[in-house]
Amino acid sequence: MSGALHPSRRIACRLAITGLVSVWGSAFAADDTLQAPNVVAISASLVTSGQPSRGALAKLSAQGFGAVIYLAPPTVANAVPGEADIVRKQGLEFVNIPIEFGNPTEADFQSFVEAMNRLRDRKVLVHCQVNMRASSMTFLYRVIIGRENPEQAYESVARVWSPQGPWRALLVAQLPSPESRSSRTRVRQ
Asked: Per-residue pLDDT averaged across 104-108, rounded?
């Protein structure tokens, strides 16, 4: 019996080897995913997350990001020292809106809206410590400014947490009531 494989088995082996090499090669290729807690990709140009590591921050430009909006005070326990410099050295814009977790305000949201509007032509990472501030502010922006469906936009928040206390109060206060949403719809029709 010869060592040659039947042609159909040869093809099957080639396909299996090609698949293994492809999977193995991609495992060792440059990682294009953001390494941070609670990463939620909203779209190709908008991502929210918890605090990325120093190494992850240093790779943002290579991942196509053009800006970072950091929504926690730079003095919180797990903040990366020098984050603004790490980001700016890559040519990215860095914005810090230091929202006190126990006291988010309408003014914080307005600052966020201004930053998002200014950066709308770039891929943006919005982050905080664990993606609670970031997911909530991004949700409000998507619904109020982007006029996205609130139920669909909220799915990105629900993947991370269920806002309580002052965060729930901020969301309720900022969101238009269902009546005003339906009257806006009637006016636009």
From this structure: 98
Give the SS3 label for residue 40. Answer: strand
pLDDT band, residue 26 (cuts 50/70/90): very low
| CATH code given to domain 33-175 | 3.90.190.10
Mean pLDDT calculated for residue range 62-82 = 96
pLDDT at residue 176 in the model: 78
Q: How many whole angstroms separate alpha carbon 35 and alpha carbon 185?
A: 40
Tokens 């947490």, residue located: 161
By DSSP bridging, strand 67-70 and strand 124-127 are parallel
Q: Cα separations (Å) of 74 from 77, 80, 123, 134, 165?
A: 9, 8, 22, 15, 23
How far is 173 from 66, CA to CA, in rounded Å?
31
